[in-house]
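=== RUN LOG ===
request id: a7f3
mode: sequence -> structure
chains: 1
length: 382
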Amino acid sequence: MLAPYACQPDASRGRLFAERMSTFRSPFQRDRDRIIHSSAFRRLKHKTQVFVEHEGDYYRTRLTHTIEVAQVARTIAGVLNLNTDLAEAIALAHDLGHTPFGHTGEDAMEALMKPYGGFDHNAQALRIVTKLERHYAEFDGLNLTWETLEGIAKHNGPVEPPYAYALAEVNAAWDLELNTYASAEAQVAAIADDVAYSHHDLHDGLRSGLFTEADLMELPVTGPAFAEVDAIYPGLDPMRRRHEALRRVFGRMVEDVIAVARNRLEAAQPKSVDDIRAMGATVIRFSKPLYQELKAIRSFLFHRMYRAPSVMAERAKVTTVVNDLFPLFLSRPELLPAEWQADVARAASETDLARMVADYVAGMTDRFALQEHARLFGPAEG
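=== RESULT ===
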């Protein structure tokens, strides 16, 4: 039984291109399946989360991160009687627009695309699912429901103009009501992203040796979690101790989100998903005390992991890759693969061409971007 404020499958606003209803899947289940079978989803396998793909097999990739986000989203949505299929679909699509090399690649692409309408990975995800995936006979993209597109566009909250060109194009074709909050399901996908990366970045940072368990003992949330494990299991094997502590951190975050959501929903008494959109604030969020504690953990991760000297050195290398590839393809589009040449021929301006080159470079995996850079510019020194 779905809550009255959940997105009801039979009340979906539909798809931009009308299709026959499936006899055995809801509209949101079809969205989820189309996302999983997309080319962009498969490429997440070799895209950076924090550590560049070639740095080790144990670190999270953008794909494993996405799967973790989807599972957290399903759990929270299920407890709150929201539509788990929609929450999962939005979670699975939320990072489709990421460039190679994670946020480092996005920062480089954003600077390169500034003269041509900007770049944003959420907007690029919309461009992928509405235009760049070209598998179906009757339309470009995946022809997802309005609710899934809305969730991709504004799962982090209302979007203020000016919009990145990719978002502006989609919104012009189909008004996503960017000035309002998204459904509770989209909000769940957003908080699930926070839960997943806060948890697994601690795991990956420990494995990388950038910090130790002793460092985490000094922080809120993680310190009490390790202390609890030590009290219950004195002398526990170090790897088991690490896992037991961090799964408690994970549980604390999920339980906090659920408790806050229940309280806010009880107070607001929304009668429909549109009531959720009109609330003027998110209903799915961390409590204020936990949010402040997580800010301390994120500050620690920023300085000890995301801006660690070894990570920064790798950031500099991969920034060079993006900064070299984009202008080369822009000035010499004949170097693009044969299947892209029809798009090159249709480009009516430098802006059109730049956006097409951005689609190509942003779609690369870490591995392919490094290979292309070595092929076109020669092997990297050292």
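=== NOTES ===
The two ends are 60 Å apart (CA to CA).
Residues 10 and 26 are 8 Å apart (CA to CA).
=== END ===
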